[in-house]
Amino acid sequence: MRDGYNGTGPGAITPDGCAVELYSRLPVGNEPEVIAAAVPAGAHILELGSGVGRVTHALLERGFTVTAVDESAEMLERVRGARTICGPIEDLALDETFDVVMLASFLVHNGDVGLRRRMLRACARHVAKGGCVLIQREGEDYHSNVPRERVDPSGFTIRIVSTDPVGDGVHSVRAEYDFPDAVWTQTFRSRPLTKDQFEEALAEADLKVDRYLTQDRVWVKAVPVAE
């Protein structure tokens, strides 16, 4: 397990504390609608950090072609209908580019600045000319509105139990997922980013904001600076 990351509950747990069985149960949210509204129909999407394919499968159903990348082989075993590549996002160097590169799951908030830079550079080197990078950010109150919980209509409860500063602008976040038959927890590191800090991070990878796709600025469409 990585330093500062932990997970508990039934089934396999990845090095960053994610439970494979948990993510197989979580329903997809509004991500497919946001993505479909922002990119051309039938686009080829490089999904960085796909996990078990929660969003992947919804995109395939909408007619997109998806290449799913994740460092967890156990996660990728659950992906169906997409090309899969197992390996770290930050080291990805495919000899091809894509209409859309997607970095979701708040990965841009990685506590390790160097790792975040490498992830964003991986995005930049795989986006085709005229293409875009879609990034999911934390909500503005992610670290301030704590503790909080949400009861999903399907019958489980998600709690953000705590988010505590651990130095150098990084927080330790603890989440709980309470299902009728099982409970999972995940503890991970997150670096809060203001809008300006986020845009500065993009600039380091020669990317810039094209537009914010949602009113809360959680979803962002970025493009290469040179375009």
Reconstruct the topology from this structure.
Blueprint: E1 6-8, H1 20-25, H2 31-38, E2 44-48, H3 54-61, E3 65-70, H4 73-76, E4 83-86, E5 98-103, H5 113-126, E6 127-136, E7 148-151, E8 157-167, E9 170-179, E10 182-190, H6 195-204, E11 207-212, E12 219-224
Parallel strand pairs: 2-3, 2-5, 3-4, 5-6
Antiparallel strand pairs: 1-10, 6-12, 7-8, 8-9, 9-10, 11-12
Please tell me about this protein's structure.
This protein is an alpha/beta fold. It has a domain at 18-140 and 192-224: Vaccinia Virus protein VP39 (Rossmann fold), CATH 3.40.50. 22% of the residues lie in helices and 35% in strands. The protein is built from six helices and twelve strands. The protein has helices at 20-25, 31-38, 54-61, 73-76, 113-126, 195-204, and strands at 6-8, 44-48, 65-70, 83-86, 98-103, 127-136, 148-151, 157-167, 170-179, 182-190, 207-212, 219-224. A seven-stranded mixed sheet has the order 4-3-2-5-6-12-11, with helices on both faces. A five-stranded antiparallel sheet has the order 1-10-9-8-7, with no helix packed on it. Helix 4 links the parallel strand 3 (65-70) and strand 4. It is globular, with a radius of gyration of 17 Å. The chain starts with 5 loop residues before the first strand and ends with a strand. The relative contact order is 0.16.
